[in-house]
Amino acid sequence: MFKAAINTIAYTRPIQATLSALLLVSVASPASAADSIATDKVQTANTKSTSDCRTDIETQVPSYKYQSEQQRVLNCMIKQLQPYQQKDKTARQQYLAYKAQAWLNYAIHQDSMNSRSPAGLVAVGMAESILQALKNDTAQNIQLQQDIPMTSALMRPDLWATLSALKDSDGIESAPREMAFSEVALIWAATNQCERGWRESGIHFRMADRWLEQAREAYINVHDSQTNVALEKRIVDYYKQYAPLDASDDVCRGQILTPSKQ
């Protein structure tokens, strides 16, 4: 049922998007629970992690001649995330660390493109909040189901349904990296589609699709048939919930995904 939905989009994409895709994967890779909180977190210039990195790079020679100071700061933050991506950490810590890395990769891409979009600033804010939680050992307080920021939208409800169902089914235990990368790729793709059209989003939707397939395969391989059937049912249930929310008008206005508090 959903395999057909996943295959409905077959975009083509010029070399620029391919480079951005490679950036997301090769640079050593939360939507906010409330947009007002996300906006506050965008102001990261004086936060501890960015301040520490800015202090560090003042005494360092740039690794690349044309790397901006902002990119050096963000790469410094990526290095700070690496200890939390190791196998001795919990799957939740690994997932969050990879997710923060993916956000930083997106911010680096935006900076390299001299983008004036607020999406890059939001990405830095997201990454900063995760990094601080990891450092402060409060990562358990970060909800796994998080809202889509105002700079993006819910597109490809079939992929979002798979992502949410895997989260509910402890899929992060099986594939923390793939789950993290797919989530940010979905947000990145929708932002690109809103800002520049569908030709700018295809590569990222395909990346999200591929990572989610890997995550689902990893989950299926370690669970019995009854558990896997339950996963498929959750995917169907989430799809029914998300399909009416699909931003078919290509307008980014965010989307609440976290359960409402009773």
UniProtKB/TrEMBL annotation:
Keyword annotations of the record? Signal
Signal peptide annotation: 1-33
Name of the molecule in the record = Lysozyme inhibitor LprI N-terminal domain-containing protein
Q: What does the record give as the organism's lineage?
A: Bacteria, Pseudomonadati, Pseudomonadota, Gammaproteobacteria, Moraxellales
